[in-house]
TrEMBL record:
Keywords: Signal transduction inhibitor. One of its GO terms (cellular component) is neuron projection. InterPro entries: RGS, RGS6/7/9/11, RGS_sf, RGS_subdomain_2. It holds the Pfam family RGS. The keyword Transport does not apply. It comes from the Eukaryota. GO terms for biological process: negative regulation of signal transduction; regulation of G protein-coupled receptor signaling pathway. One of its GO terms (molecular function) is GTPase activator activity. Residues 1-109 form the RGS domain. This is RGS11 protein. Transmembrane segments: none annotated. The lineage of its organism: Eukaryota, Metazoa, Chordata, Craniata, Vertebrata.
Amino acid sequence: DPLGRAQLLEFLKKEFSAENLSFWEACEELRYGEQSRITEIVDSIYQQFLAPGATRWVNIDSKTMERTLEGIKTPHRYVLDDAQMHIYMLMKKDSYPRFLKSELYRNLLAEAIIPPETKKRVFPFMRKQRHSSPSP
């Protein structure tokens, strides 16, 4: 959901961890983007998020970093999958649960447009009788 993702990004900015979601999104662009741009996108992701002194450095463990740095020597669509999964799990276990408890999320829910409920029977195969029949 674009609105939910934008609100999560705002929350992460306040938590000083917005780079995690940005990295995840960049990896999605790599996975589903144009084949002709793969090398360019991998290099851009490396420079922004993984290189020593990167402006938006993401914190991944040393083994994942090793595999990633080895993999980007021959860039392909899935070369950042391990690093992306690591960041995803960090957000899933830490940032996202805090977001769900935040005032920002509560406000988002309060402003949500909820479609009117439609009346559905619990058992749609049971039809309501049209006319009451006299009991014997």
